[in-house]
Amino acid sequence: xxxxxxxxxxxxxxxxxxxxxxxxxxxxxxxxxxxxxxxxxxxxxxxxxxxxxxxxxxxxxxxxxxxxxxxxxxxxxxxxxxxxxxxxxxxxxxxxxxxxxxxxxxxxxxxxxxxxxxxxxxxxxxxxxxxxxxxxxxxxxxxxxxxxxxxxxxxxxxxxxxxxxxxxxxxxxxxxxxxxxxxxxxxxxxxxxxxxxxxxxxxxxxxxxxxx
Amino acid sequence: xxxxxxxxxxxxxxxxxxxxxxxxxxxxxxxxxxxxxxxxxxxxxxxxxxxxxxxxxxxxxxxxxxxxxxxxxxxxxxxxxxxxxxxxxxxxxxxxxxxxxxxxxxxxxxxxxxxxxxxxxxxxxxxxxxxxxxxxxxxxxxxxxxxxxxxxxxxxxxxxxxxxxxxxxxxxxxxxxxxxxxxxxxxxxxx
Lengths: 212, 191
What we know:
heterodimer, A: Alpha-Beta Plaits, 2 domains, two-stranded antiparallel ribbon, 7 helices, 44% helix, elongated, B: 191 residues, mainly alpha, Rna Polymerase Sigma Factor, Chain: A, Arc Repressor Mutant, subunit A, 8 helices, 63% helix, 0% strand, globular, transcription regulation (chain B), RNA_pol_sigma_r2 (chain B), DNA-binding (chain B), RNA_pol_sigma70_ECF_CS (chain B)
């Protein structure tokens, strides 16, 4: 097995114009900046740098082949993971619902409401809700609540002639409708922030149906 | 053949950014989390296997990593960094396993199991250089291979590796240098 002895190190340095393989590897890690003429002008260093780069390229191929093999596994490892995390839902606060019975208490979890809002957003082509917050005291009936949504908008989901504003208006309406239908929250506002905008030059298709 | 219990349903989420998926998963979206598992799980499996030295415990380590990630996602500030964050969790869990194994066996493993052959195996002519290199990597002494994978797959700095493995930085540099030397020699042999 190879051992770094002082002598072999000295030999290496004399062969590589005073540098070691480690120096050269660090140089590559730094992206060869700032440039070092004592390395760049040395033929021996240039050869060594080429070898190191060939090694890096070869190992990248090794790594990506290994990752590809793992990605092709069909033994259900993903399902096992998902099944185990599904047991740990993010409930959040309790959002009360009025009940006909004076002795029964009924409530939705905040997590469930956020889930429904996400689904409402996903129902609109071109919209993906990333973050969703219910601001205000949802546990207190009648308290004004502001819904804050961070969304990603892809213009491929827009109907012909539709703007980002139109698309988010559709989202706002859908979110409002689902909240009125499923909860008793008093919605003060639905604030939407577009955090990502994907502009694709989609060809106009016949699917651009005129809704509303 | 095992039955495929879940088929990936193509959805807009498959093409979504890590940042968006991490935000949604932090809000409790299991589907977004599943996309992250499919996207980064394979790399984490490779990482764990290399640190552990075999794939016997890979399933467990990767599953534990994702459960931890699911619980801690709401504390991740920058969703765009979810990949390296997952790799850190996975690296740490793998190292914990190795430590537990070592405590149990009560042996010092430093350089204990240098493989008998570091020179190319008798490989069929059709085998790719990459295969030989992969084997060479797999057969590096444990501590060298661990440093190497933390550096190359985990994208750790030398200092981070030193901290994670509880070694002096100089030792980490030395281990990486030896690993590099061995791999370079393997590459030359396949010229």
